[in-house]
Amino acid sequence: MNGGFVRRASSAILTTSIAAVILPLAANAQSFSYSSFSSAALAANPLQINADAAAPVTGAEGTPVLRLTPAQEDQAGSAFSLNTIQLGGNASFSTAFAFQMTDGGGIPDGTGNTPGADGIVFVLNTVANNVGGLGQGVGYQGIANSVGIKFDTWMDAAGSFPQDSDPNGNFVAVYTDGSTETAGYTPYSPGDLSANQYYTPSTIMKNGDIWYAWIDYNGTTDELDVRLSDGVDVRPANPDLSETIDLNASSILGSSPDVYAGFTSGTGGAYDNNDVLNWQFNDTYEPIGVPDGGPGAVLEAATLCGVCVLSARIFRRRIA
Questions:
Q1: How far apart are CA 70 and CA 77, in angstroms?
Q2: What are the residues facing 282 on neighbouring strands?
Q3: What are the pLDDT digits (tens) for 115-141?
């Protein structure tokens, strides 16, 4: 750890749910949308909220948010769908959400970035809707049979957790089976669909802005795309990170998976409020925020469904 500080972290899954919303899930609720995390929204579509996470909490914008961790040391929290969700063909899905990180503090990571840690992970897993290790585990470490897209805001490398080999303190990467190790990852090259790459945004994700993210997995092509925007709720035309990965592999989600969908976060000796402001999830490959009739809608629909259902797909396109 930089400056001799040591952050406490655990690779074991925290099985005790300190704060949980345990209510019946609406029948056949496979795709869903939260415009906010108000009491009414959570009553209509409950989540299991674990450990140090809480909702509804009044966020920095004055709206009810899902707070995965408060701005305190050594926290771990998560929120997952209460029941499993049957994904579409070949584990296809699309999701979009907004997040915000505020009130950062604690020890520095040596990068010169603003204070705060450790980020947010969007997670699909087939095991349980609980929470993994805190600190550098970002609430994801130790969750088996999973895929996690981590929005990492603290550099774990030489002097802290060298096994993680973070390239910097502000990056996005894809992990599986509860691992948070970035050893061997390389900077993303547009058009290169190789695994084990990372994307570094041009601005810092813990800058207090509202960030928007879109994640799409086309099980037909095994392509996982991640898009990110600082402060502007407009889906970028091109992905910021894209890779080929077989989520149907038995060690990840398996064939025709039933998954828990949600988010994790963790803090250690550095911390901030890690909030999710809204969330939409589709249980099939149906990219969110693609304009009706736009080139992206045509290409994405054609890839998945073929020309025979293209017009129907575009007609049904939802705009986040």
A1: 9
A2: 94
A3: 999 999 999 999 989 888 887 679 899
